[in-house]
Specification:
By secondary structure, the chain is an alpha/beta fold. It has two domains: about 5-95, no CATH class; about 105-240, Rossmann fold, CATH 3.40.50.2300. It has helices at about 20-25, 95, 105-110, 130-145, 155-165, 180-190, 210-220, 230-240; strands at about 5-10, 35-40, 40-45, 70-75, 85, 125, 145-150, 170-175, 200-205, 220-225. Helix 5 (about 155-165) runs parallel beside helix 6 (about 180-190). The radius of gyration is 22 Å and the shape is elongated. The two termini are about 35 Å apart.
């Protein structure tokens, strides 16, 4: 999935190098250096102190003595005999949410305005293949008083709708997702006798008019693009669920 913006997080990695290694590369250290990683489909920039070297290493698993976080793939042994843990980018999603955007900025944006306060508990179905986006939306909506159900794609969302007795007040769906995309999900919702009046909002990185028109023709009640402004999105959601 194409992205025009990168998220930036800072992770303290436990990487051991000899003093000789650091001295030999000190003249080339870039204080603004980062590595772009693919974390569950999201491009994430991880800030690093320096790029020491690039080499092929043999990955060794940890033993089962203590629980190991999923984002640690194992370890490798350097030529000096030092043991260095190895990070697994595909499992870094659990570390992203607390750092994304900065905690102070997050608190400021997630503080609901007077127009977005929820009088009665409403349930919102979030449909997005990005775990980072789902967690961001879930935290924002939960802090504003909503109940939230998360789905990874349109197929899972459709299964939730058809199998659950839960009453949903709004669906917020991405467009480009595996198995069933947002447009296909919207078609299924509008064709279902029970769910055809369920308000559905599209939240996507696609900004072109063609996608907007298609979403409107399929019955989307609103169309927002990523990155979004939390306060603006909360106000729009409050207006939708209040009707």
């Amino acid at each position: 999935m194409a992205r025009s913006q990168y998220s930036t997080i800072f992770i303290n990695t436990i990487t051991s190098y000899t003093q000789k290694d650091l001295i030999s590369t000190s003249t080339s250290i870039n204080p603004n250096l980062g590595i772009v990683l693919d974390v569950e489909g999201e491009p994430i920039v991880v800030a690093v102190n320096a790029l020491i070297a690039e080499k092929e290493l043999v990955l060794k698993p940890f033993d089962k003595t203590i629980p190991i976080p999923a984002y640690l793939a194992g370890c490798t042994v350097l030529g000096t005999g030092e043991v260095v843990p190895v990070l697994s980018p595909s499992h870094l999603g659990v570390l992203i949410a607390p750092f994304q955007g900065g905690m102070e900025r997050e608190k400021e944006f997630f503080q609901p305005s007077t127009t977005s306060q929820v009088d009665a508990v409403s349930t919102i179905l979030i449909v997005d293949d990005s775990i980072a986006v789902r967690r961001l939306l879930s935290r924002m909506l939960t802090q504003s008083g909503y109940q939230v159900v998360e789905c990874r794609d349109g197929k899972e969302a459709l299964e939730k709708l058809n199998q659950s007795v839960q009453q949903y007040d709004l669906v917020i769906s991405d467009i480009e997702m595996p198995r069933m995309d947002g447009f296909a999900l919207l078609k299924e919702i509008r064709a279902n006798e029970h769910w055809n009046s369920l308000p559905t909002m599209m939240l996507t990185s696609r900004e072109n008019e063609l996608h907007r028109q298609k979403a409107a023709s399929l019955g989307a009640i609103a169309y927002y693009t990523k990155p979004f402004h939390p306060a603006e999105l909360l106000n729009a959601i409050a207006l939708i669920v209040s009707h």
